[in-house]
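Weekend entry, working from home. Most of the wet-lab plans are on hold until the incubator is repaired, so I used the time to fold the two sequences that have been sitting in the queue since the last round of cloning. Logging both here for the record. First:
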Amino acid sequence: MWFRNILLRLFSSQSSNHLNNYSKLFRMIKKLTKMAQQNDVQSNLITIDGSYLEGGGQILRNSTALSVLLDIPLRVEKIRAGRSQGGLRPQHLTGIQLLAQLSEAKLHNGNIGATEIYFTPKTIKGGNYLADTKTAGSVCLMMQTAIPCLLFADTSSQLRLRGGTNAEFAPEIDYYSMVFQPIARRFNFNFDMTLVRRGYYPRGGGEVRITVNSVDQLIAADLTDFGSIKRFFGRSFVAGTLPKKIAHEMAETAEKLIHKQYSKDIPIEIEVVKEPDNMAMGTGTGIIIGAETTTGCILAASALGKRGVPAHEVGTQATQDLLEDLSYQACVDQHLQDQLIIVMALAKGHSKIRCGPLSDHTKTAIYVAELMTKAKFTVTEISNSTASNTTKSAFIIECEGIGHKRQV
């Protein structure tokens, strides 16, 4: 009604300058159109509580990625409220800015320390993108959000990501190549990755280059058949000024722990490495230990060395984490659980994964995925008798995906 009244007033003007009236009408229509678009954005806006469960950066990463993929305007409040230093840190801001760039999004309040952002995406555009945390912030966490989006871009893309390749509280680059990449292929989630240089805390300076070719759709996968363990593998490394004997000690510790629980007939292949100076920035040490089963399940766990922590303790931490997952006959380890939730929600068909107890990261990922995609997840507890005659419950996570398609 108010729009009709405006037009009637405009045309009933006694002015003889009709051209001026048409000009006024055009400007008014533009203004009203803009207002209508803003109202439409506000009506579709989804608000995410960033303090939910683990209250860290993951809820921010998953919600902004789904915002891009589903073209949903987003408000995230209480960002990283569960952390001692809340709000956006450089690595989080860099990741969001990368998503804004590849989706031509409007990002409001994108500042270090911000506890609330508004994010309004447009179209996902393939191309060449560079993101640099300028810290030791994890490049793998940027990969978690950018790659799923670029899979649905209009053309192929190349990413150059700089920061920490082996960082605490994040998947390491070796985990991405050894575990995530081969498992993701089962969902038609494909990308190529080249490690240019490793970067460690506190300097960062690592670089990874990634090529992502568009797909029409992700497909469901069933990761519930554990089979039996075919082999153990791993990589134990030192870089910078640290001696190679540290890497040997971590690897030897891992082998001894594995042999205490599993037959020596199962091969163990742990690569022991002193990183070349031109392939690593700074000083660092760590180990990743993995297992592959006869049904193609791949699980792993890792640990980084710290000043004052003996090498054997680092090797023990990584190995015990892996052995804990294997005790559930899990097909997906505790680090991969949450990373597959967004993939399962987007895929076409019914996906299932078998894992140990759900982490807060996984519960948070399910919350965000259900809220934004409307896909539904179910979690079923399964009793699992172990070799020591104790009962440990494994869990099956299932989802009927929405079958998201690339827009052409």
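Second, folded right after the first finished:
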Amino acid sequence: MSSTLDSFRPPSPRTYRLALGDLTLPLLYAELAKLETNISHLLRSNVELQLYMHENEGGDGDRELRDAVNENEETIARMKARMEICRAEIEEKGGGVRKCGEDRSRESGEGGEDGEEGVFL
């Protein structure tokens, strides 16, 4: 007998886009931030799992750990696709978004001291 978690499937991209259609810009920005945070946690988890596997090669849990890393990578790919859908919805509603890592100074003509990149307050 399969559990509820075994039968859980994330919503399709189409269903996700439809769900976003009812959200306001602040909620869309919050959704985008949530996805970025979740991806960050999954990436960190994968690094930790891979380090553990490297340090403990040949252990009984190798297969489970590899499966967990693969599952995280699939989830990250789905979340990145959702981020693109969310960005498109934000732009359709007149909001502006930058992709992670884009240099803000190129958009506004501003820059940090000595051409540094990053967030300047």
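Plan for Monday: verify the second prediction. The chain is about 65% helix and 0% strand.
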